[in-house]
C-alpha cells in the first residue's frame, strides 16, 4: 500500500503563497520548499516546474477573488449589483493582500499561448463565469446587450477599480479607505456614459 502523501496540494500552494509574500513574485521553488518544510522532490512529484506550481497558485487566487464578484448575482437592483462589484475589489484586496499579490503573477492572455500541461482548460475557462455574469448584468442594467455596452460595464466595475487598487498591491502601502469611494464614483460615472433606456411616458390628452 502506498504511503499517504505527507504534503497535500493545498500545503504546497499555501507554501507558494507565503514565498510570494516573503520574496515577491520572483519567489523560487527552493523558497517554497523552505516555507513548507518539504524536500524539493515532494514539490516536483506534484508539479513539473516552477511555472506549473505558481500558475496553480495564480488560478486558486483568481478563483477566490471571483467569489465576491459572482455573489453580486443575488442583488436584485441592477445598479447596486454593479457597484457592489466595484467595491468588492478594494475591500477584498485590503482583506487579502497576500492573495491579491499572487493574482499579479500572470495574466490570462499571457498564459493562453502556452499554459502548463494539465492546466490548459482551467486557464482557458477561468473568467468564463464572470463574463457570463457581465452579460446578464449588462442586460439587467441597460435593457439590452452588445459588445460596446459589455466593454463599458467591464471597464466601470472591474477594470477601473482594479486599476485604482493595483499600485498599492505588493507596495507595502495600505489601501487608503477613500479608495472604496473612488472606485464607486468612477464606476458610477462610467456606467452613466450609456444611460439605461427608460420607456417613454404616454402623452396626456
TrEMBL record:
<feature type="domain" description="HTH tetR-type">
    <location>
        <begin position="6"/>
        <end position="65"/>
    </location>
</feature>
<keyword id="KW-0238">DNA-binding</keyword>
<dbReference type="InterPro" id="IPR001647">
    <property type="entry name" value="HTH_TetR"/>
</dbReference>
<dbReference type="InterPro" id="IPR009057">
    <property type="entry name" value="Homeodomain-like_sf"/>
</dbReference>
<dbReference type="Pfam" id="PF00440">
    <property type="entry name" value="TetR_N"/>
</dbReference>
<protein>
    <submittedName>
        <fullName>TetR family transcriptional regulator</fullName>
    </submittedName>
</protein>
<feature type="DNA-binding region" description="H-T-H motif">
    <location>
        <begin position="28"/>
        <end position="47"/>
    </location>
</feature>
